[in-house]
Write a sequence for this structure.
């Protein structure tokens, strides 16, 4: 399911590639395949588009800086983005809440209260929910992405859903 | 699905469709240095750092090398050093001597403190310190980071760190650390030790916080005169290449640099011998940096054009124009070995026709201060010296000999040689030596080889540092040929990256295999391959 959210590799801009070296060409293809999906996923975890773009930018920069040393950059990027989201989580939530207040003040459409509950969840629960219900990962895949044991993912999701039911009922 | 699950899926999809995705590709390609790998305003989880370092070792690559394209916009530095070192030029590529600029150089790093606040490891009764590292970063002034990987009496692994910066307020549960307001989450706690230092304790392989909070409360601090725990390097026996394209001296020590189409080979007389791969994007240019020795940082670059001007920028904004050379293949290069205490902060690259130089900030991390001496951590029996490179007794493991090159024995037995000895093992039948340029490695790596097999990329590394790996990545145990191997899934826990680790004496052997990015190979073959190699690895 994840792959359906990724950009096409073959649509790369040849002119752009002709200006740069082989490292840049390879990285550009990787970027085009991964970037948008990673930003959307990070935005769901952080509640802030800007914070998500920052985290993914930093992660991709790290991948680029190590490009010649990484044999398999996909898992590296996944880990880097999730760790970045984990690190800035609280600040991002604060930003999101501030943004919501601002949007409300200028009359924009109120956001789904579901996201308030989502934002209040511990990071691992929030990430598990997003990876399960947006990305479509299995519990084993979620455990791998979060660096957790597979047995912990189910309880995280169950607790998250229970809280959502309670808060939204 | 339940109602709430349906609602979640719809809401997440709808929200995702509205996310404003910024195209950052050009920024990353042209300004790939925006993420500082050392001290900076953004908190980096130390667990991630250590795991990444371990993973880097596994695939046999070095962590002290950065490749950066020089197509970026110019930037400026902020410094207030008022010393008056004058700008100048060096024209002979085989006589690069920066010592005239050292005469008036400030202590390195600029404003280097004479006292460092670190955790007093002797205060943790029964704990063992696996290493202690730390240092400054070029351009980051006197700020420093100090780290130590430790194990508690039950064998649990932790990382302790102090950063000389205020706590930036991590996410997590509020906890009290001896009267200081800390935050704990996901197996990590951080707290302000004082107004200018932040302490962090991370436990590997767990999201629980009870133990890290308890450990943090048990820690005390002490003041030491240096944060370097590095031991003096042992002689390598390697001398500079008289035919190298670039050569010079640093504090009387000769160095040379030979460039090829895609790499540069540095030699620091009797101290360092490194080959560093570099992108062959001559149209845009590339720069590499390699630290890790006590004398200087190697900097080299493949330049876009013959007339490109390269200037080393000092903290005073004075510049030193470096010589360049055109090789037989037509590529243009520069190379230099820059002493830390030169306090150089950047390279300015000016391509003909451009009115403004491209500035490449030097960012080799955690360099060792050239003032001060080796470790001062002698205040407890639980302190173990960190990287004791080349100090391993010759009988410790693998009946080590003195060969200094990596060679392949007749099929199917392969070997990894190092200054300290030889390990022999069996590879899958189809394995071929990895033809790619061997990346630079940290100095605790004493031997390595890389292979390409049908299933995966294989690395065998000998090193004198035992990297801590989270317990929850452990897959199993293998005992073979008097070595006790622990097998880990060190990738995204899906079997794509497997490593076996065995330590005997002070030498650790890492056998790793990584499945290729786009590949239908069953992941089980990756683990099978690692275990085959581990079981076969013998001393001889």
């Amino acid at each position: 399911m994840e792959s359906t959210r990724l950009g096409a590799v073959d649509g790369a801009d040849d002119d752009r590639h002709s200006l740069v070296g082989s490292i840049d060409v390879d990285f550009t293809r990787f970027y085009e395949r991964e970037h948008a999906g990673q930003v959307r996923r990070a935005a769901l975890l952080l509640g802030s588009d800007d914070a998500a773009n920052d985290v993914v930018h930093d992660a991709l920069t790290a991948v680029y800086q190590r490009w010649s040393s990484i044999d398999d950059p996909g898992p590296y990027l996944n880990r880097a983005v999730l760790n970045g989201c984990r690190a800035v989580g609280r600040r991002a939530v604060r930003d999101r809440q501030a943004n919501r207040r601002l949007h409300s003040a200028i009359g924009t459409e109120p956001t789904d209260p579901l996201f308030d509950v989502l934002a209040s969840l511990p990071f691992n629960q929030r990430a598990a929910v997003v990876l399960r219900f947006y990305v479509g990962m299995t519990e084993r895949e979620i455990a791998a992405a979060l660096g957790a044991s597979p047995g912990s993912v189910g309880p995280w999701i169950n607790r998250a859903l229970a809280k959502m039911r309670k808060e939204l009922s | 699905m339940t109602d709430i699950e349906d609602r979640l899926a719809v809401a997440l999809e709808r929200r995702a469709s509205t996310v404003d995705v910024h195209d950052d590709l050009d920024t990353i390609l042209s300004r790939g240095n925006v993420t500082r790998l050392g001290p900076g305003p953004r908190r980096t989880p130390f667990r991630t750092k250590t795991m990444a370092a371990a993973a880097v070792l596994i695939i046999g690559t070095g962590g002290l090398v950065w490749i950066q394209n020089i197509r970026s916009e110019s930037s400026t530095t902020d410094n207030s050093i008022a010393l008056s070192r004058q700008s100048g030029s060096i024209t002979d590529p085989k006589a690069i001597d920066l010592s005239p600029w050292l005469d008036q150089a400030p202590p390195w790093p600029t404003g280097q403190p004479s006292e460092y606040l670190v955790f007093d490891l002797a205060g943790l009764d029964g704990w063992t310190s696996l290493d202690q590292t730390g240092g400054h970063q070029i351009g980051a002034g006197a700020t420093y980071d100090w780290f130590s990987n430790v194990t508690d009496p039950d064998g649990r692994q932790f990382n302790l760190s102090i950063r000389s910066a205020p706590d930036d307020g991590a996410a997590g549960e509020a906890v009290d650390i001896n009267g200081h307001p800390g935050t704990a989450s996901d197996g990590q706690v951080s707290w302000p030790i004082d107004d200018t230092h932040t302490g962090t304790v991370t436990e590997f392989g767990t999201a629980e916080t009870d133990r890290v909070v308890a450990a943090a409360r048990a820690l005390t601090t002490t003041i030491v005169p240096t944060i370097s725990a590095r031991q003096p390097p042992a002689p390598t026996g390697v001398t500079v290449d008289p035919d190298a394209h670039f050569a010079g001296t640093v504090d009387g020590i000769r160095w040379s640099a030979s460039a090829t189409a895609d790499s540069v080979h540095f030699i620091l007389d009797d101290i360092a011998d490194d080959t560093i791969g570099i992108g062959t994007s001559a149209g845009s240019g590339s720069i590499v940096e390699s630290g890790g020795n006590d004398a200087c940082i190697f900097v080299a670059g493949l330049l876009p054009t013959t007339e490109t001007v390269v200037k080393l920028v000092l903290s005073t904004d004075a510049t030193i124009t470096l010589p360049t050379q055109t090789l037989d293949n037509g590529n243009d290069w520069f190379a230099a070995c820059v002493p830390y205490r030169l306090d150089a902060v950047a390279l300015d690259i000016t391509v003909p026709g451009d009115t403004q130089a491209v500035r490449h900030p030097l960012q080799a991390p955690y360099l060792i201060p050239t003032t001060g001496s080796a470790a001062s951590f002698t205040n407890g029996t639980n302190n173990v010296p960190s990287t004791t490179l080349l100090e391993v007794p010759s009988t410790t493991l693998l009946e080590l000999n003195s060969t200094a090159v990596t060679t392949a024995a007749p099929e199917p037995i392969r070997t990894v040689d190092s200054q300290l000895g030889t390990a022999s093992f069996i590879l899958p039948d189809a394995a071929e030596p990895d033809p790619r340029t061997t990346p630079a490695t940290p100095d605790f790596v004493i031997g390595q080889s890389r292979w390409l097999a049908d299933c995966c990329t294989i690395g065998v590394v000998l090193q004198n540092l035992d990297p801590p790996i989270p317990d929850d990545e452990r897959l199993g145990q293998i005992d073979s040929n008097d070595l006790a191997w622990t097998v880990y899934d060190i990738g995204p826990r899906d079997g794509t990256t497997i490593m076996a680790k065995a330590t005997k004496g002070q030498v650790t052997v890492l056998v790793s295999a990584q499945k290729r990015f786009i590949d239908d190979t069953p992941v089980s073959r990756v683990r099978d391959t690692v275990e085959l190699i581990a079981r076969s690895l013998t001393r001889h």
